[in-house]
What we know:
By secondary structure, the protein is α+β, with helices and mostly antiparallel strands. The protein has six helices and eight strands. It has helices at residues 18-25, 28-33, 42-60, 105-119, 135-143, 168-172; strands spanning 3-4, 8-12, 64-69, 75-82, 90-96, 125-130, 147-152, 161-167. The chain has an eight-stranded mixed beta sheet with strand order 1-2-3-4-5-6-8-7, with helices on both faces. A hairpin with a 5-residue loop joins strand 3 (64-69) and strand 4 (75-82).
Amino acid sequence: MTFVTARLLLKPCTTEDADLVLALLNSALFIQFVGDRNVRDLEAAKQYIRERMLPQMNRMGFGNYIIIRKSDSMKLGTCGLFDRPGLEGIDIGFGLLEPYHGKGYGYEASVCIRNAAFELFGIKLLRGVTVKENKASRGLLEKLGMHYVQDVRLPGDTVDLMLYELSFETFKGI
């Protein structure tokens, strides 16, 4: 399923998007705030998509979406809904290549995906996680109507994450 906003298309990620996934996973800010996924070439990016993204999309009907600017078909980043091990509920996540930061694309894509989570996929509790140092991500989660709950540590991680959430009931009042 593809989603459309005023300026963007959001389409499910496939191995054809390996170039974007490779660039995003190796961007300085992604590595700093999310972590190094050790994906260093196009084949590794395709394998990452096949093993880490497509199974959830096939199992749940939602997952990682590529953010594409309608005006020129430029791939800007990703936004999606994730069933993360060790985190109850569904997590909204987003990442943009650095040239597209601060232009409202992340918010526009995230609002679309947030709305789909509740209205289309029937999710009752939407969560978001980020490191404390990532002020832009925290700001976007708050702008989406989410509120901070507590710090958490996901299995296998060495860093505490700030957990945000938004319930369907609260969403209906936005």
